[in-house]
Specification:
With 74 residues, this protein is of the alpha+beta class. Helices cover 26% and strands 16% of the residues. It has helices at 5-16, 29-35; strands spanning 20-21, 24-25, 48-49, 57-59, 67-69. The two termini are 23 Å apart.
C-alpha cells in the first residue's frame, strides 16, 4: 500500500463501518464481511489474520506501510 496516514485512517474507517465512508457507500457490506473472513488459512481477501496481531486483520504492505483493524472493537 502506498498512502498517507490520513488515507489509511479513511480505509480503516471504510472497513469498520461496513463499506460506508463519509455517509457514502463505497463497498457492499457483504463484500467487506467476506474480505475479513479467512478464505484460505489465515488469509482473507487482501487481509491477514493471526500472527503478529491475532485480535484483528491486517495488511503489511510491500513498502512497510502496515494497517490493522479490529472490527469487533469498533
Amino acid at each position: 500500500m502506498f498512502g498517507s496516514v490520513k488515507d489509511l485512517i479513511k480505509l480503516n474507517d471504510l472497513y469498520l463501518k461496513g463499506g460506508v465512508y463519509n455517509h457514502e457507500v463505497f463497498l457492499n457490506e457483504e463484500l467487506i464481511n467476506q474480505s475479513l473472513e479467512n478464505q484460505v488459512g489465515q488469509r482473507g481477501l487482501g487481509w491477514h489474520s493471526g500472527r503478529p496481531f491475532p485480535a484483528g486483520m491486517g495488511h503489511t504492505g510491500f513498502t512497510g506501510t502496515a494497517i490493522w483493524i479490529v472490527p469487533d472493537i469498533n
